[in-house]
Amino acid sequence: MTLTLYYHPLSSYSWKALIALYETGADFQRVIVDAETRPAFLEVWPIGKFPVLLDAERSETVPESSVAIEYLDRHRPGAGWLIPADPELAWRARLWDRFFDLHIHEHMQKIVGDRLRPSEAKDSFGVAEARGRLAIAYGVAEAQAAGRTWICGDDFSLADCAAAPALYYADKVQPLSAGALRAYLDRLMDRPSFARVLEEAEPYFNLFPRE
Prior knowledge:
Glutathione S-transferase Yfyf (Class Pi), Chain A, domain 2, 9% strand, single chain, four-stranded mixed sheet, Glutaredoxin, 2 domains
C-alpha cells in the first residue's frame, strides 16, 4: 500500500478526496490529523491544510482536493474516469468543480466559521453577504442540475465529488428548497461512495457548530 491520505472525517474537502478514493477503489491508508498526528503531518505538508495525498511509490506529495483527484485519475484510475476523456466534457467537469468550491463551498464555510467565533468577533455583514451569494449560486446550480443525473450529465465525475460535501453542508446552514438541486443532493447521498463517507463521519457530527 503506497497511498496515504491525511484528512479529518468531518472536513468537507477531505470528503471530496475520500469520495474519489472510494470511486476509484484505490488501496490507501488513512491518517486522521489531530493534536497527536499534526506534528508529523506538518513535516509532510508544512502549509498544514488537509487533505493531502502521499504516494510513497512515486515520492509525490499531492495537496488540494481537486489536484488529488486529478492525480488519482491519472495514476490510480478505477473502473471509471473522474475526469472525462473527452476534452469538451473534461473542461466542463473542471468548471463545475471550481463552481462548487468557490461559489457554494466557500460561502458555506464563511457561515460555519462565523459560528465558531466568539460573540465579540462575529461578522454579521460577512455572513449576510455569504448568504446572498449562496442564494445566487443555488439558482445557477438548480438550472444546471435540471434534467441531469449528475451535474455534468450521465457520468459521475470530479464535479460531483466537489458538489457532494459543498451541498451537504450548505443545506445545513441555508436549506435547499425542493427542486432539481435538492433531488441531486439526494442522489449524491445515495451514491455508495458518499454514503460511506457520511457513515464514517457520523461519530463526529456532534462537533459541527449549530446556530
